[in-house]
Amino acid sequence: MTRQEERRARTRRQLVEAARRAVAARGYEGASLDAIAASAGLSKGAVYAHFTTKLDLYLAVVKDVLDEARLQLERAAEALAAGASPPAAAEALLGTAFDAEHSALLLDIWATAGRERRVGELLDAFLAERLTVLADAAIRAGQGPKEALATAELACRLIDAAVLHTRYRGAAAAGDSA
Predict the structure, then answer these.
(1) Cβ neighbours around 19 below 10 Å, total
(2) How far out from the chain centre does Cα 2 lie?
(3) Strands (DSSP E) along 18-63, which ranges?
(4) Which residues of 134-165 are buried (b: 16+ CB within 10 A; e: fewer)?
(5) Within 13 Å of residue 74, how many CA atoms lie on the same side as its CB?
(6) d(Cα 66, Cα 105) in Å, to the nearest integer?
(7) What is the maximum span of the chain, computed from C-alpha positions, in angstroms?
(8) What is the pLDDT of residues 81-137, one digit of tens each?
(9) Domains within the chain, CATH numbers bracketed
(10) Do 93 and 72 meet the contact criterion of CB atoms below 8 Å apart?
(11) Is the pTM of the predicted complex or chain greater than 0.85?
């Protein structure tokens, strides 16, 4: 990788990180490109040099967050494969770097998916992959296909509820300190 490519990748990463913080705090609709650029210490022109639209920048955030969620999902899958219950598998997932910012971002992705087709496509693909990974893990634990699918569906619902709860706790704590 040349110096220019390294610099470009570093700038892109700065923008994605700044966008993550802005979206976690204000949601996709409330996160302005001006504020994101300023937070990254860059100009709005730098944003447009890397991302054609605000949605393109948001899609980079979505991919980043879903990649993190995939890594966290491995812990839940390992727990199910070892015979853990769906609540224990969800708890194993939460034992990772599952924090209020990550929860806020996931919930914003869910909300935005209903308005932005491309976000919805990424989320739908992740949700299908998540169900498959967890069902496969339950099968490895000795469950039959029907039972494994039911176990995976329950684990998915518990994970989603935990995301919502984590977001609520983070928002409540932020409100307490305000």
Answers:
(1) 27
(2) 31
(3) none
(4) bbebbbebebeeeebbebbebbbebbbebbee
(5) 7
(6) 10
(7) 55
(8) 999 999 999 888 876 545 778 889 999 999 999 999 999 999 999 999 999 999 999
(9) 3-177 (1.10.357.10)
(10) yes
(11) yes
